[in-house]
Design brief:
The protein is α+β, with helices and mostly antiparallel strands. Helix content is 40%, strand content 20%. A 3-stranded antiparallel sheet has the order 1-3-13. The chain has a 3-stranded antiparallel sheet with strand order 2-15-14. Strands 5-4-12 form a 3-stranded antiparallel sheet. The longest helix is centred in the first third of the chain and has 14 residues.
Length: 414
Amino acid sequence: MWGNARSSILILNKSTTAMSQDNNQEIDLTSLENIELKPIWANNKEKRTKHLESKKTKKQRRFNSDSKNDRKERKWDRKYYKYKLVVSADQNVLKKIKAKVRETGITYSLTEIVNVICNDPNRLHFKVKGIDDITATEFIFERQYKRYYSNKKDAIDDFLKKGLQDDKITKNLVKEEKPKGKFDYVLECPMTKKLLPPFNLHDNEKIIKQHLYINGITKPYSEYIKVLKKTQEQEKIKEWSQKPIKHYEFMIEKDKESKSRNLDTIAYKLESKYFNRFFRSESVMKFKYGNINNLPSDVRAFTKEAITDKKSWYKGLFMEVLISMKKSKFSVYKINDVLFVSPHKLNKIANNNLSKVASEIINVIHNNKNISRKDLVKNQELAKFDIKDIVLEIRWLIHQGFISIYSDSRIKIT
């Protein structure tokens, strides 16, 4: 009975035997495409660390930096922040790791898998929420530009500036008029170098705000007017007074009901009538590391600091990956307080169900603790068998869960 089943397995695996025809060729199953898992028990720690560091990008080295000096520099007190950070694995990354572990058949420690994920912040997913679970903090998410804001005012203000650049907010010229009267000075914008009316001109605030938003200047109005430069040069005063002041009419997405010549009115309508079209309120900010600049400045500062405090979120990430592996039907077991993850269901050996080659392989593994796959294939006690049969039997024993191969090529009986 077992002979027939084993023959079928050998036929199915014929295409995979070519790689093992060379008796001196080391079989490497540890490579994961762009995701490298390393054993935690490697002997030469200094050499291994240097090797790993050389493969890391500058961003990864900075992210993982944990020297005493770095810890002193990044000291921060949570009480100054009103937020908390939740870190989880990016599901696409986790899915890819699972597929690669199944493909190679290798058993990894759970720590190795978690470290592969958290060593690169782009493999993580982040959530930020208010530290008070009773009174939820409200964040504003802007649908068009995919940005978060701490309050409605900032969200609408930024939307006005961006909307005027890409026609979400349209403007139509309704009239032009030259300023009347004599003026002692005019204002000059330090960003655009354009001349603006003095503060004592009628509709000064309206005209300056119009200039602010149309030109996409990021400063709020209260700060912007402080940086405007007063100039009493007669040539500039004359230049400004001879140019007509332009008055525009604004609309939200060409909706005539939103029409107004005052941007403050447009802002009010965005909040009162059109808010749900462009925004939504959320109690949790969800984002990838690459989108961290889409957060409000205070949340961005908090997040960057909190990510460096690995101890505060590593345990939660570890438990998440553990549960995910169990749900995906991986075998999770413990050896000397270290959790391991195997893609195969573990089975106890029943000698009467094994072929002669498989039985000899088991004996060699039993007599040579922590033997590597390469050494097992070349072991003298197995020299009487064809190398193709040895390789196929090893693969079959791994697949059936009788033995496990670890990330440093060690093979052990399960």
